[in-house]
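assembly run, all chains below
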Amino acid sequence: MNRARLLRIGLKVLRLAAVLLVVSSLCFFSLSLLPGDPARLMLGDTATDEAVATLRSQLGLDLPTMERFGHWLGGVLQGDLGESYRTGQSVTQVLAERAPVTVELIVLSQVIALGLAVPAAIVAAHRRRTGTDRALSLWVFTALSTPDFVVGVVLIWILSVHLGWFPANGYAPWSDGVGPHLSSLIMPAIALAGTSFALYQRVLRADLVETLRQDYIEVARAKGLSLTRITFRHALRPSLLGLSTQIGVTVGMLIGSTVVVESLFGLPGIGDELAGAVTARDYVEVQGLVLVIATCFVLVNALVDVLYPVIDPRLASSRRARGGAR
Amino acid sequence: MSAAVPTPAVLPEPGEPLLRVRDLVVEFRTANGPLRAVDGVSLDVARGQRVGIVGESGSGKSVLSRTAMGLLGRKDARISGEITFRGRDLLAMSDKQRRELWGREIAMVFQDPLSSLHPITPIGQQIVETLRRDPALDKAKARARALELLDLVGIPQAERRFRSRAHELSGGMRQRVMIAIAVANSPSLLFADEPTTALDVTVQARILELFDELCRELSIGLVMVSHDLGVVARHTDAVSVMYAGRIAEQGRVDDVLRSPRMRYTSALLAAIPRIEPGRRALPRPIGGLPPDLVNPPAGCRFAPRCAHAVAACTDQVPVLEPSADVPDHAFACWNPTEHPDRTEVAR
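ok done. output:
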């Protein structure tokens, strides 16, 4: 590993850290602007002002905002995300319990979204401007414009209430068996997949249409290769850059969508926890969750960045040619 | 086919020609009406014969070669006429049957080698892929054969180049790779669409010599589409000059380019800059623009730009007919050059 490359990686890490710092401070200060007091919310309306004041000083809420942020940041740098006001549970532990559910939900939804979007994009690109393409477009725009919770409610109504295939609500951990576990995740995953499916199909279709116009596709045809081989071996890979960028952006967006979907389906994930924490003004927990979510988003996009030259080696050599201080 | 279809002037060796095109018409639908890119073209290519198709951009030469190969089919355009490859009707074939021929019996070298090679797949793999159209060839054999091919087309250090990608090679190397791909399965018919236009002159000469060698050694029938008369003069046996979708003049390359009869051919030759001792003629460019093929002029399509047009030229279509003294030299002209001045093409 040469020095230029080390420098590039170092700069990247610094940039990621800067992003996370900005996100954390924005989050912290905007939270402190919100009306409502966690101590008051915890003790209820009947509590005396004195009791509230005591709790506030126990929680450190009487300190100036800047100082609280300093304390919190100091803890974070030592790997301590603090403790929830509500439960006293450490935020790290909350994450350890709840993150797997959300991660699994997102992964499953992405598998569904890509599993549908890639074939749909290929078919649409090969038959562009035909009835098939238009029908797929209609489906895609319907998926794009339907909110997740509407899809969720419709799924519950059809698949749970009428057909009884899946439980309407609740989460079954792996220990309940693979079947029940997946049954409890499949509907929320579908609900979550709608928007991603639509975005992926649009992006990949557009890139494929462009690739299929390239000379090397005509050459592949003139070699007598089959349409399947031309599609998968020649057209698909050069068309993946837009899709990978879109996946990076979408995964970040999905973490927000899990708030609604997890609440609707009663899944004990991060989204559900975050909703509760915001309602209770549980500043410390919200901070911790947002920091972790932001980190995931940044890491996913860094991963996409690293993947670009793997998908298209021309990018690697042009980066080298530029001297590579990026 | 009706008896009215003219026989092309250049007769191949006795026996069935490799490629036989008769009265081919290719028409595209456009917003302004049907566009006849190719209008009644007949052409024969024999094994080992090198046939040039010359014309300006938009004269229909690329559409002609793509249709003759079958890459442009009835799905893409309205096509009438007859195309037979080794006695088989190409236009009547299914997509699958045509695909069987492509890359094995018929191949094409395209104009721009950079955009024609896959940007990501290493070039060796692109040759292997073509070779593996032959089910008898396993991976190892195909790889060995690909290395031989790279060597055959004159790429040094084939072993190392095998893993290179298109953007890592020079223009000439890329076109050599394209040629290696095209001849991988020893096709009997090879189309080359402006194969050297994207290359500089010294590389161009070497690539054209490579074509000559391959035609001679593998007795490939070559159809070379070019706008460059010099290239065609030196590297083909027969030539068809196209203008606005029609054949203007057709014959042995020596006859057509040394004593052109059709006015368009002579105008084309006069437009080439030439430096000869004792005779310094400035190139005379052809005035005007090629006609609009949606609404082509009546009569001879070159008439509006022709300095020698007579009354018949603007109202009657000239027929492609053999000349009286040289039977395999045909031209379509109402007022041909009577005493050909034995124009010398730079050889």
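The mean pLDDT of chain A is 87.

The first helix of chain A runs from residue 3 to 33.

not gonna interpret more than that til we talk
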